[in-house]
Specification:
Radius of gyration of chain B: 19 Å
Largest sheet of chain A: 5 strands, antiparallel
Structural class of chain A: alpha+beta
CATH class of one domain in chain A: Alpha Beta
CATH class of the largest domain in chain B: Alpha Beta
Distance between the termini of chain A: 49 Å
Low-confidence stretches of chain B: 1-7, 24-50
CATH superfamily of the largest domain in chain B: Beta-grasp domain
Number of strands of chain A: 12
Structural class of chain B: alpha+beta
Strand content of chain B: 5-15%
CATH topology of the largest domain in chain B: Ubiquitin-like (UB roll)
Radius of gyration of chain A: 19 Å
CATH superfamily of one domain in chain A: CO dehydrogenase flavoprotein, C-terminal domain
Number of strands of chain B: 6
Oligomer: heterodimer
Helix content of chain A: 25-40%
Mean pLDDT of chain A: 98
Mean pLDDT of chain B: 85
Helix content of chain B: 25-40%
Order of helices and strands of chain A: EHEHEEEHHHHHHHEEHEEEEEHHH
Distance between the termini of chain B: 56 Å
Strand order of the largest sheet of chain B: 1-3-2-6-4-5
Number of domains of chain B: 2
Number of helices of chain B: 7
Largest interface: A-B, 28 and 33 residues
Chain lengths: 333, 209
């Protein structure tokens, strides 16, 4: 690991001012916030990340889960994943989020990893993690060996000719389906970012993964007031039963009126270059009877633009079955 | 050869042996992976003798197994390396060093974490419990006794991490069935495959509690 300067900013303003000196907040950032460390310290050991300064934000006041006046929930940036997943309000009103978090990583890692850190979780693409290999995400312009190489676990949605790295987060898939809002404080003040606008598609700049700029500090995430009677399911399919990243996952939030789907939000994980909300699948179901034929049709719509590589074509059918099963489980639940 | 011998190598421990051969045969190689004691030495506060000067070292206080330890460490030192190399509590094991195996599991402020993915500096002033703080050979923690009784290990390398995880699990939301235990223990890999006996040991302690 390369050496770095380590400080613990006393307050939010000093953290932002210090981080604002960075050249970028994206891949290769020379200044990084650290909270749980589960992604960053790992990548620093691999020398994929080589920050000159680390700002430990654990003492900043972002470790609480609070009810909001509008009935929603405010989740602090440094709330640990285990605390979020086991929170009574989350389990009662946003169970898809609890299910998704508990389907990810291990109990130890969930005790460390934070809300904001999970938003910024990096891909597990082996070429990204191996500095002996070219990688457009790690070193722009060097190429993407995954496209002609080992790509079984990589993305089929949102890919480009420059990058097919999968976003590995489970939490983000549930937050996409719950239409969460991300709250950021930066050198120019506070702003809010709709969940779907936070992560970027790789396009020709896969080193840019989010809209964050130097000095931007995610302070919290808010969830809208829960819809009464909503059925929520997170289904994750993977190579082993636990402690593994998704090959395909689906988050479903559904309301039924009689046998008709009055409201549905759908997001997919393990398939996209970003947490993958599917408005196509939602449109295919809204106002339709809740039956398997319609669920399958929605799954077809969700994967219509999928672009498989040499080793991951199986993920398309796997994803369709995953979503169909998740929708059926929600409808029957 | 004499160049690998210490003045008094009558009964060297494995650590002393490795560290002696390492300094001559493969110092550079080992230093790349394991911060040697020179990277992170303990402040005695009593003498100034043989204190190596560490560029950029910073002070830290950890409360380990109920005892405050004041150290000066390189900021890069992980909690795992600090425990093993600086404080020389070697019950905590380094497996993958990337958060994938659970061998390095310890408790920080009562919760289980993998100590390899955390910098020691992030835990300044916090309370750390390692396997050495659970019980003693004369007075085992019930989980240690259950692992013995149920044969919850073969080679033993993952065992301290398994036991630290298992003890933390007792205080976590966990269903009564074996499947729930397996799910919550999935972050601890056992290459010998002692899983069935590990689950049995944990369930035995839960039932007796």
């Amino acid at each position: 690991m390369h050496s770095f300067e380590f400080t613990k900013p006393e307050n939010t303003a000093s953290a932002i001012n210090a981080a604002a000196q960075a050249k970028t907040a994206q891949q290769g950032a020379d200044i990084r916030f650290v909270a749980g460390g589960t992604t960053l310290i790992d990548l620093m050991k691999l020398e994929v990340e080589i920050p000159a300064r680390l700002l430990d934000i654990n003492r900043l006041p972002f470790d609480k889960i609070e009810a909001m006046p509008d009935g929603g929930l405010k989740i602090g940036a440094t709330v640990r994943n285990s605390d979020l997943a086991n929170h009574p309000r989350v389990q009662r009103d946003y169970s898809v989020l609890s299910q998704a978090i508990l389907a990810g990583a291990s109990a130890q890692l969930r005790n460390m990893a934070t809300t904001a850190g999970n938003l910024l979780q990096r891909t597990r693409c082996m070429y990204f993690r191996d500095t002996a290999m070219p990688c457009n995400k790690r070193e722009p312009g060097t190429g993407c060996p995954a496209i002609t190489g080992s790509n079984r676990t990589l993305a089929v949605l949102g890919t480009s000719e420059h990058c097919i790295a999968t976003n590995p987060s489970d939490m983000c898939v549930a937050m996409a389906a719950l239409e969460a809002t991300i709250h950021v404080q930066g050198p120019k003040g506070e702003r809010t970012i709709a969940f779907g606008d936070f992560h970027l598609l790789p396009g020709s700049t896969p080193d840019r993964e989010t809209v964050l700029e130097p000095g931007d500090l995610v302070t919290h995430v808010t969830l809208p007031a829960p819809r009464s009677g909503s059925r929520q399911v997170y289904l994750k399919l993977r190579d082993r039963a636990s402690y593994e990243f998704a090959l395909a996952s689906a988050a479903v939030v559904m309301n039924l009126a009689g046998g008709t789907i009055s409201y549905v939000r759908i997001a997919l994980g393990g398939l996209g270059t970003k947490p993958w909300r599917s408005p196509e699948a939602e449109a295919a179901l809204t106002g339709k009877p809740a039956n398997t034929a319609n669920f399958r049709q929605a799954a077809e719509a969700a994967l219509r633009n999928a672009n498989p590589q040499s080793e991951n074509k199986f993920k398309i059918e796997l994803a369709k079955r995953c979503l169909t099963h998740a929708l059926r489980t929600a409808a029957n639940g | 050869m004499s160049d690998t011998q210490q003045p008094n190598p009558q009964n060297p421990t494995r650590r002393e042996f490795l560290s002696t051969t390492g300094t001559t045969a493969a110092a550079t190689l080992i230093a790349a992976y394991v911060p040697l004691p020179a990277n992170a030495s303990e402040e005695t506060g009593t003498t100034g003798t043989s204190q190596p000067v560490i560029d950029g070292a910073v002070p830290i206080t950890l409360r380990i197994n109920g005892k405050d330890r004041q150290l000066r460490i390189d900021p890069r030192t992980t909690l795992l390396d600090c425990i093993r190399e600086s404080i020389v509590l070697t019950g905590t094991k380094k497996g993958c060093d990337h958060g994938q195996c659970g061998a390095c599991t310890v408790h920080v402020n009562g919760r289980r974490v993998v100590s390899c993915l955390s910098l020691a500096l992030m835990h300044d002033g916090e309370e750390v419990t390692t396997i050495e703080g659970l019980g003693t050979p004369e007075s085992l923690h019930p989980m240690q006794a259950a692992f013995l009784e149920c044969d919850g290990y073969q080679c033993g390398y993952c065992t301290s991490g398994q036991i630290m995880s298992a003890v933390a699990l007792l205080k976590e939301p966990c269903g009564p069935d074996d499947a729930s235990v397996k799910e919550l223990m999935s972050g601890n890999i056992c290459r010998c495959g002692a899983y069935a006996n590990i689950v049995e040991a944990i369930q035995q302690v839960r039932k007796r509690a």
